[in-house]
Amino acid sequence: MSKMFLDPKQPLHTCKQKSCTDCQVPGAITCHFSLKQLLHFLSIGLPPFIVGFLGLHHGLYEWKVLAIWLGIIIAFFGFIEIRVMCSHCPHYAEPSLKNLKCWANYGAPKIWKYRPGPMSKIETIVFVTCMAIVFLYPSPFLFLAKQWSFFVIHLLTVISFFATLRSCLCNQCINFACTFNAVPEKERDKFFKENPTVAKAWGKK
Prior knowledge:
This protein is an all-alpha fold. Helix content is about 50%, strand content about 0%. The chain has one domain (about 35-200).
C-alpha cells in the first residue's frame, strides 16, 4: 500500500516539520491519501459515466458520439485539469512523484510545472466549463432521444457526485485553489502555518 500512496509518516515536501507526530493538521485536512478515499471517490465519480455510456449506447447513437466523449474525458482529466487545477496543489509539489497519488486524479502524469497559489480567473472558468462539459455531455443526447429514464438517472448521479464530493472529500482537501474546495478558513490557516512556501504563494504571513 505504501507504494500506492505517499508515506503517511513523512511530511509533505512543502511542510516545515520533520515529523507528522505532533502535527495539528491531520483530521481536519488530508495531507496523505488512502485507498479508502480513492475507492470512495470512484464509487461516486464513476456512476455518471456508466449511466451516461449506457444511455448513449441504448439510444443507438453512432460510435462517434461516444468516441468524442471519451476524447473529452481523457483530454480533461489527463491534461487540462492537471494544468489549471492540480498543478496548484501541494501534493503536486512532491519531487518523488511522477504521477499523482491522490484520490481526485490518481495516476495522472505530472506534465506541468508546480504553481503554488490560487487559480487565475481564466483557469477557474476553464475548469468549471470543462467539468460541466465532461459530466453533462450525455444529457442533451439522452433528452433528444427521449431516453427519459437514463436522462433523469444520469442527472441524479451527477448531482449526487458533486454534493457528496463537496461534503465528504472537498472539505478536507489540501488543494485550496480548487473551485470546489470547502476547507474552513481556520483549518486553512493551520495548514499555512506548517507550509510557509504555500502560505507565501497565497499572500499569507
